[in-house]
Amino acid sequence: MHELSIRNLSKSFAGSPALADVSLDLRGGEIHALMGENGAGKSTLIRILAGVETADALELEKDGRRLPLANAKNAYDAGFRFIHQELNIVPQLSAAENILLGLPYPSRFGIAVNWKELNTRARNALSRLGIDHIEPARQAARFNTGDQMLIKIASCLVDAEGMTADLYVFDEPTAALTGEESEKLFRVIAGLKESGAAVLYVSHRINEVMRLCDRVTVLRDGRNALTAPISRTGKEEIIIAMTGRSVEDMYPPRSRAIGAAVAYAASGVSTKEVSGLEFELRAGEILGVAGLANAGQSGVLRTVMGLSEPRQGRLECLSGAAPKSPSEAWKSGIAYIPRERRGEGLMLQMPVRDNAVLPHLDTLRRLAFLADRRGEQAMAHKTSEYVRLKAAGLSQPAYQLSGGNQQKVLFARALGKTPSILVLDEPTRGVDIGAKYDIYALVRELSEAGCAVVMTSTDLSETLGMCDRVLLMRDGAQQAIVDAAGLTPADLLRRIYAS
Amino acid sequence: MIRILKLYGTLIGFALIIVLFSVLLPGTFLTSGNLINISQQISMLAVVAFTMTIVMVMNDFDLSVGSMASLAGVTAAVLFSLGYPVYVGVAAALLVGLLGGVFNGVLVSLVGILPFVATLGTLTMFSGLAFLVSGGRTIFGRDIPSEFSGFARSGVPLDSVGLDGLKLPFLSLVALVVLAVVWFVLEQTTYGRRLYAIGGNKEAARLAGVRVKSLRLSAFALTGLGAAIAGLMYSSRVASANPTQGSGLMLDAIAAVFLGMTMSEEGEPRVQHTLVGVLILGVLDNGLTQLAVDSYIREIMVGAIVITAVAFSSITKQGR
Fold first, then answer.
1. How far apart are CA B96 and CA A293, in angstroms?
2. Fewest 10 Å CB contacts: which of A37, A149, A382, B263?
3. A–B: how many Cβ contacts below 8 A?
4. B43: in domain
5. Per-residue 3-state assignment (H helix, E strand, C coil) for B169-232
């Protein structure tokens, strides 16, 4: 059993401290959760452990011996392995090649790749994780995100001769996974723990942490706020340690009845992605879309946004004909927050302002084609204030913001013109708890004002906490619409499996 | 300090080049006559580079501008030799540029071919067309009307600003007008804001309601038009047209945009920065020619300077 002790860890950027005197003890055979809001210093800590960033002060001991940690090679030699939410997998190569990527491939006569041996080694690594459903010879691109993450973990297991990994650091691993994929991952992580490795598990998802982890350390503003065994710690205690305040209820209560006007309706609609869509979305209503992994949840939203054309059936929109493209959708008052914040949402190099006003340039322009810089500034100022964006200014490029604030930029974009329908694909994915609360309050406020909302979420308690009704999808087909009132997440999960 | 070097390194380099030439070429380099001469020498490259900036804002390329410039030049010249008036030849050449650009745009945005591949293909096509149209020969002499070639030789007298006997060449003036128009389009119109959004993230721009396909198509059309203008300017200046006259323009234009990109914080192209890139290339060419440096050596130096500037800016940008 290994013990890793981190003491007196400090790091500051341009004079402002990111980590101040942080300590952390990791033990073999234990899963240690690291929690904290965005900006609390979690990422900095991980980057220092990975040797990417150098600490100002750090005492690092493994089994009582001092360890150097100056670069990524030190970290690797110390047996530290990192699995990030953004996968650095090479989609063109096979699963087996991805698993053995860092090592010399086995070869015949030193020239030709010995594919059989390569696949066998990969299969061995996978079976050590208890994974038997991944075919090593298959191209990595053809696996879903969850399986790709398992491939990545397997690649940490195959090391050069005689080397073993002692510490696995998981950084928000389930942010991109569905419930089912996460379950597989949890089993693998539990297996790593059984094998005697130490696991550092970074996550915003408190329910996951309560289930999976043995101890928890909470950082707030770069300092230790709490370290305790999970078995003797309550959710509330962790939330208070993270936010410094008590969160009575994550989900703001609904106070007003849903309007009678139908904002959007689908009858018998089939597209390339989904089929059997039959629903009416009313003004002021929040409709959830739920299902297992890739059951077509996003496809429903993409249909509303005019991104996938109906092959049959009718789509109707209160504000006129149903839009046939995103450009038409925005014009008819439908605002969209896509699933992939970085890939589909933001122009990362561009300022907050340009990101926030992009769909509304037509309403801001002067003389039919002139950009109205002052109007853009005013709109971005108003909407970013409204969503409580924390940024150095409207000219700050989006990549410099935390995940929660990047998401708020997308909300600011959606609010440039008061939307009549809000389409949200995983609106709180990878967002810290404080920003989550802001987003819930914001969505609730908009729906109170008569905006119709359709949203997906892999977090079932979020779906039930926010939505009035839930549309269940299975294999791309609509199964049922259920009332959210009175359901527990377990009930909903049962309905999803049953449907 | 690093920040200043990062943003102004290229500008400082430009200043050093000017100082160097003024010292090495006293009395001939830093004269108003020579500077006006430089402005005319670079005017064709400038027009191509300015309009190239429009597509590069979207992270796209147009490799076909050089052969488009040749094609436009010979198109006008052939029409002149057939006895058509100047305005018909000029209008036809501009139309050819516009259509060629639209063709590039269709391939890239509607068919979905990578710009590098699509415009590499049209580069060859336009070049072949230029040979076909001209019959492979240079059109010159009496075939080129004097009104057309006279345009490049005249300009606005600068006596009123104290430069007696000097003229601001019309070619330089055309480049300035194109600069102003491109700057206005990219920086002051909603069209330009959207092109930058496409360059930032195509998919995100589409999902935010930007009509990516039609904008990309139109931007390529503008670049084609710019190449045709440059081709006409070149034919006017040398009072002739041949099917390979524009071939050097493409690489220099892309180099100028890249030099300019080193000057912006996030590495995006800006047409005012492209101007600096064009000036650096033009001044180098002029100064080294006056110093009687061999033209092969000149090419090596220009290449090295582009690489140095871009390498310098990527190193300083990694450091943040």
1. 52
2. A382
3. 80
4. yes
5. EHHHHHHHHHHHHHHHHHHHEHHHHHHHHHHHCHHHHHHCCCCHHHHHHHHHHHHHHHHHHHHH
Q: Does domain A262-498 have CATH number 3.30.428.10?
A: no
Contacts with A210 (C-beta within 8 Å, 6 or more apart), sequence order: A230, A235
Q: A interface toward B at CB cutoff 8 Å?
A: 305, 307, 325-327, 329-331, 336, 338, 343-350, 354, 358-359, 361-362, 364-365, 369-371, 397, 413
- For helices B115-134 and B86-105, the axis angle rounded to 10 degrees is 150
A313 Rama class: left (phi>0) / alpha (psi -120 to 50) / beta: left
Residue B13, domain CATH: 1.10.3470
> In the CATH scheme, what architecture does the domain A3-243 have?
3-Layer(aba) Sandwich (3.40)
The reply to whether residue A327 touches residue B266, judged by beta carbons under 8 angstroms, is no
User: Locate tokens 């080193």: which residue?
Assistant: B262
**CB of B269 less than 8 A from some CB of A:** no
- Report the candidate in A63, A46, A38 with the shortest Cα–Cα distance to residue A11: A46
Structural domain tally of chain B?
Answer: 1
pLDDT tens digits, one per residue of B265-295: 888 999 999 999 999 999 999 999 999 998 8
CB–CB contact B197 A347 (8 Å): yes
When pLDDT is cut at 50, 70 and 90, the band that residue B206 belongs to is: very high
ipTM of the complex: 0.86
The CA-based diameter of chain A, rounded to the nearest angstrom, is 75
Token pair 């410099």 is found at A400
CB-nearest to A361 from B187, B194, B200 is B194
Contact A350/B209, CB-based, under 8 Å?
no
- Range of B124's domain? 9-20+31-314
* Backbone phi, psi, residue B303, to 5°: -60, -45
Q: Which residues contact A489 (CB under 8 A, 6 or more apart)?
A: A460, A461, A464
Both tokens assigned to B193: 């804001």
Query: What chain B residue is nearest to A362 in terms of C-alpha separation?
Result: B190
Q: How confident is the model at residue A76 (pLDDT cuts 50, 70, 90)?
A: confident
Residue located via tokens 């007196």: A8
* B 127-146: CB under 8 A from A: none
Nearest-5° Cα angle at B184, B178 to B190: 135
Residues of A in contact with B190 (CB under 8 A): 361-362, 364-365, 369-371
Residue A352 in contact with residue A389, Cβ under 8 Å?
Answer: yes
C-alpha to C-alpha distance for A267 and A288, rounded to whole angstroms: 18
Q: Could you tell me if A217 and A24 are in contact, meaning their C-beta atoms sit under 8 angstroms apart?
A: yes
